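User: Sequence in, structure out. Go.
Assistant: Echoing your sequence, followed by the structure tokens.
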Amino acid sequence: MTVAMEKPPVPEPPQQETDAVPEAAPVAVVRRISRRMVVGAILVVWLVLFAELRGTHTLPLAAADLTGLHRWLNDVNDSIGADRNSNPLFLYFFNEIRLVIDNLTTLVQHLISQPSDSRPLPQIGWLGVVGIAGFVSWAVGNWRVALLSVAGFVFFGLQGLWQESMDTLALTLSAVFVALLFAIPLGVWAGLSSRANKIMTPFLDFMQTMPTMVYLAPLTLFFLIGGASATIATVVYAAPPAIRITAHAIRTVPETTVEAADSLGATRWQSLLKVLLPMSKRTVVMGVNQTIMAALAMVTIAALIDAPGLGKTVFQALQSLDVGTAFNAGLAIVVMAIVLDRVTTAASARAEAARRSGGRLLAWRRQLVVAGAVVTAVLVYLSHTYVWAAEFPGEGDVGASVVRAADSTSTWVQDNLSGLTNAFRDALTNGLLNPFQSLLTDSPWWLVGAVLIGLGVVLGGWRSGVTTAVCVGLLVATGVWSDAMTTLASTLVATVMTLLLAVVVGVWMGRSPLADRVIRPTLDAAQVMPPFVYLVPFLALFGATRFTAIVAAIVYAAPVAMKIIADGIRNVPETTVEAATSAGCDTWQIITKVQLPMARGALTLATNQGLIYVLSMVVVGGLVGAGALGYDVVAGFSQGQLYGKGLAAGLAIVLLGVMFDRITQAAARRTSA
């Protein structure tokens, strides 16, 4: 016991060990402060300051008011108009480009849609056009696609919209021809050269971020209003998909195949023509498909700058709230989009089949192609020679029936469902949209700017914060801050609702192969339709209000977000899901604790695409009462004194798009890292 009592005391732990404990604690605390908490703190501070500073420094601007920048842009427009025929830059550059494009467009229109100088009808009448459509569809695709094409083109005539449809087709074909003339070589160059690809990528990102309407205003400044400007705008908008996809196709050709060609002594040019392009044919045709779809969407929007065709019919009907006429013309646009999409998709599949067979064409098919060409030539001759084959017979009785049915349906909906639709509209407008819009428009501009910059830094990093700061500063400089915040409110509300819908349907598709097989074709078809068309049915349901634009934006953006989320859920490793199941997790826990967290990258990408698509549609919604920036752009085309303000509004739309894109892309990279 004595020895035990005399046992020396236990020595104190070394100082370095005691220091280790307090050092670990702050690290743990820092790690607990997640981005969600920081975002929440920013929003709480915003709400507190909003309550104190509401209504101050909001930078309001009435619809007819102009800033110094707007007046300066008006003066620039007037100056350019006065010097258009004397300034060398216009005489030998812009005017020449416009002349070439105008001649090309006019040539195609005289072929299939507009009377030429010496004829009261186009060179090729309806029978010849239908014959060409059927022959080309069969030659590059199959008999089913040919039948669809013939039925679709005949339907245009039955609707009483033959000339309008051919005008739209003429502008689309002209723009696609010019776009591919530049896009394919640029895509090949970007595919062969990493340096060229790095240089082009930021420009392509920027061009694909811009909503369709934004292209129109600056181009009219240099090329005037009309078909030429519409075609040039369509070329600029439709070229990026072809460049991107062609470059991707060239880069994904197996390196071993290229090395084998090099070892056999093939030159760089021979390797390109004999190896790279043939093996990339299917993907390149997919790029052509995307270019055609983009061109058709842009041609319909280009009705705002007096482009002829179906878009002009829809635009005029929307202005007068004529739902029946808008629906009939919108249906024609949908049919044309489906036909063009199916033809190019079938061409892509045949290109792949031809590549696998070594490019051999069966003798019997070669004979049928020759016979089909002869029959088509006969139909073209008949349509050129005889009035009955040149001018579509009848007076569009089917179209008249469609108009009456659409008008009757619209009237019935307004008479019998207006209580339900108005209650739904008012509940979301008053309960969600108005408060959020008030938060943005009634807060001081510097407070909203600080919040946006803070969110940019937290979600995307300091580079996104710098980009957001630049965009906020330029938004203030445009003089349309209040309208930009109204557009921002509608865009964010629609995006949230889009993501809620996309998560529900996307998770279902990702977990159920049957649901995916049933739903995906509908989503593919929905992505084919130009944005203009989405406004028509919701105009009948909700009237000419900003809510119409929001609902149309949700329906327009949801398909791409659903597909991205479905693919993200499907890519979650099956072993992980099985492990969670064996651990006793139910379906809800597997979705919320395993699949959605592991698909965060897909969710962020869906947010990115949803924002861009929604912004594009919300802006187009300016045609049906959405107001804000979309209305400013449209007013700039129709009222000369507001041209400068419309141009500034277009710039503001671009800035919002760039800000959304940079933040969400950076957040996606952080999530996947």
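User: And one key feature?
Assistant: The chain has 31 helices and no strands.
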